[in-house]
Specification:
Layout lengths: L2 E7 L3 H11 L7 E8 L2 E8 L2 H7 L9 E8 L14 E2 L3 E9 L2 H10 L11 H11 L5 H11 L2 E9 L6 E6 L4 E5 L3 E5 L11 E4 L4 E5 L4 E4 L5 E2 L4 E2 L4 H5 L6 H7 L1 H9 L23 E6 L1 H18 L2 E6 H4 L10 E7 L5 H12 L3 E6 L5 H5 L2 E4 L12 H21 L4 H17 L4 H10 L8 E6 L3 H16 L3 E5 L15 E6 L6 H13 L3 E6 L8 E4 L6 H22 L18
Parallel strand pairs: 16-17, 16-18, 18-19, 19-20, 21-22, 21-23, 23-24, 24-25
Antiparallel strand pairs: 1-4, 1-10, 2-3, 2-4, 5-6, 6-7, 7-8, 8-12, 9-10, 9-11, 11-15, 12-13, 13-14
Bound molecules: 2-deoxy-2-amino glucitol-6-phosphate.
Length: about 600
């Protein structure tokens, strides 16, 4: 989820671009850059790390009079956070900034390389500027070259491009990633990947829609639809506060992050799904050589994702898999053998306990893999290999989209390994890939469901506790649901395997004990149903989640009927996230910053 800004006008462009990027800091980044074009001359500045580093690099640069400029903050998806990988990316006479993922970048890069183009970065974005210049040398005008470039891009993008011959014009395109164009008066044009970058600058804006593209000068914005028909520019007043802009209109960052799971999962899957195989370009080809066992290690929500992976890796890849809580693993003198792949999972890549277990494994000579959301984090730098989850910055302390992307990466990893070990037919891998492709729509929040949960939440504010119960991968999901509720509502909740209730916990069953029962249609439904009926028979208050009606429930949340239990998993995940959030909101808690918690636990 990178940040993009652009400006055309006579005000000091460097300040406008950097201020705009600063307003996008909430989107998270690991490098940044700007380029200014004035009198056909480019001035480029890029820096890794915080914006202050970029400001220092550009400190001696001042622009007076008319100029155009584009800027970018990068959240690494392809290629490490380095200056070379930072945007803007440069061709011979052009620069581009981009948010999203170009899914076919490798084939475009190969054909351009074959034509002698020299690439300097590891990014997918750099393909755009070289492709544009390839067309520029073959077609009439820069705009025709821009159109020809867009025609070849597959995937998600919001991009701004400038070229020397057109030093009064910014070319723009939007498809799958956000882009807003704004104006102030009659002679200033602004671009931003979010309202936040335009507040205090643009007076009225156009929220571009997918497939729209065009070019802008200080005075005019020329806009086209995906069928190349010219569109009338319809501006609306920009009337949001900075914080609501950063929350993009949601009440909390957590709510925003639950809603953006749909777009974020699309990024996570991008470039990794083939017809009947999973492709991780970042994994060394020999990573799994000599590996007979996998040990996963994590904390909190990441531990729950790791638990899901134990079911999927053993089921799909037929490889012995175990999972450990990092704070326990560190001190129990574990037996480790070099034929074990040690996999740590961490949103932040900085959790102290998890990081220490990674060091332990490396010291014992094990191959290590980290599944992480933050490139260049301590764990990413330490592990032998890493897979980025591409969730973008997660501001809410209660993890949501990080969990969703971790589970989807682990599911893909189980299929990737199943392909290497030939433990699943290609047709079965292909079938599951088709289910993976539906995840962005499965996790899309339906207003009717959210409204039902908002209403329902008023009935679950008291009572002496909650059980979240499920079987198979729905047991770790139950644990995750219980954790979400605990950490933002401060109500007591436990996750339990539903088959365990009769071994003691059912003694707690009474009308004041709320049981949230996960009843997927395609995984042990009958077994789980009978467990829940035992609780209902003892007058526990039951809230069931299932595509099938369940007449023993006091409340029933009807989920969609899916072809696969993993799709049911992701739909129920969103419901549990929203359910906990609505309860916490009713209790007046700070959903984004719950008491006693930190976003990254970098101490023991
Ligand atoms: C989850 O909602 C919590 N914020 C917490 O359990 C978190 O998952 C845990 O601290 C691990 O953090 P990590 O993923 O950054 O390693």
């Amino acid at each position: 989820m990178c940040g993009i800004v652009g400006y055309i006008g006579t005000k000091p462009v460097k300040e406008i671009l950097i201020d705009g990027l600063r307003e996008l800091e909430y989107r998270g980044y690991d490098s940044a850059g700007i380029v200014v074009l004035q009198n056909h001359q480019f001035s480029l500045f890029k820096a890794v790390g915080k914006l202050i580093n970029l400001e220092e690099k550009a400190s001696l640069f001042e622009s007076t009079g008319f100029s155009i400029g584009i800027g970018h903050t990068r959240w690494a998806t392809h290629g490490k956070p380095t200056e070379l990988n930072a945007h803007p990316h440069v061709g011979a006479v052009s620069y581009v900034v981009h948010n999203g993922i170009i899914e076919n970048y490798q084939e475009l890069k190969n054909s351009l390389t074959h034509e002698g183009v020299q690439f300097v970065s590891q990014t997918d974005t750099e393909v755009i500027v070289h492709l544009f210049e390839h067309h520029l040398s073959n077609v009439g005008t820069p705009f025709e070259a821009f159109k020809a470039t867009l025609a070849q891009l597959e995937g998600a993008y919001a991009l701004l491009l400038v070229t020397a011959s057109e030093d009064k014009t910014i070319f723009f395109a939007k498809n799958g990633s956000p882009m807003i164009v704004g104006r102030r008066g009659e002679d200033e044009t602004f671009f931003g990947s979010s309202d936040a970058a335009l507040i205090g600058k643009a007076q009225e804006v156009i929220y571009l829609e997918d497939g729209q593209y065009g070019y802008a000068t200080a005075e005019t914005i020329t806009l086209f639809d995906p069928h190349h028909h010219a569109l009338q520019s319809r501006f609306t007043p920009l009337s949001v506060t900075k914080l609501s802009a950063q929350k993009e209109g949601y009440r909390f960052f957590m709510e925003k992050e639950i809603y953006e799971q749909s777009t974020v999962l699309a990024d996570t899957l991008m470039g990794r799904l083939r017809e009947d195989e999973i492709y991780f370009e970042e994994l060394p080809s020999d990573l799994f050589e000599g590996i007979c066992e996998i040990k996963l290690c994590a904390c909190g929500t990441s531990y729950h994702a790791a638990m899901v992976a134990t079911y999927l890796l053993e089921r799909h890849a037929k490889i012995r898999t175990s999972v450990e809580i990092a704070s326990e693993f560190r001190y129990r003198e574990p037996l480790l053998t070099p034929d074990t792949l040690f996999v740590v999972i961490s949103q932040s890549g900085e959790t102290a306990d998890t990081l220490e277990t990674l060091k332990m494994a490396k010291k014992r000579g094990l191959k290590t893999l980290v599944i992480c959301n933050v490139d260049n984090s301590s764990m990413v730098r330490l592990a032998d290999a890493s897979i980025l989850t591409r969730a973008g910055i997660e501001k809410g302390v209660a993890s949501t989209k990080a969990f969703a992307t971790q589970v989807s990466v682990l599911w893909m990893l189980s299929l990737h390994l199943a392909g290497l070990r030939q433990t699943l037919e290609a047709s079965e891998i292909g079938r599951q890939i088709s289910v993976l492709r539906t995840l962005p729509s499965v996790v899309k929040v339906e207003n009717s469901t959210h409204e039902q949960l908002r209403r329902l939440s008023k009935r679950y504010l008291h009572g002496h506790g909650f059980f979240f119960i499920g079987r198979d991968v729905f047991f770790p999901l139950a644990l995750e649901g219980a954790l979400k509720l605990k950490e933002i509502s401060y109500l007591h909740a436990e996750g339990y395997p539903s088959g365990e209730m009769k071994h003691g916990p059912i003694a707690l069953a009474d009308p004041e004990l709320f049981t949230i029962a996960l009843l997927p249609e395609h995984k042990l439904y009958d077994k789980t149903k009978s467990n829940v009926e035992e609780l209902s028979a003892r007058d526990s208050t039951i809230c069931s989640l299932s595509p099938l009606d369940f007449d023993k429930a006091d409340d029933h949340i009807r989920t969609h009927s899916h072809s696969d239990y993993m799709a049911e998993f992701f739909e129920m995940m969103v419901i549990l996230q929203l359910f906990s959030m609505e309860i916490a909101i009713r209790l007046g808690n700070d959903v984004d910053m719950p008491r006693n918690l930190a976003k990254s636990v970098t101490v023991e």
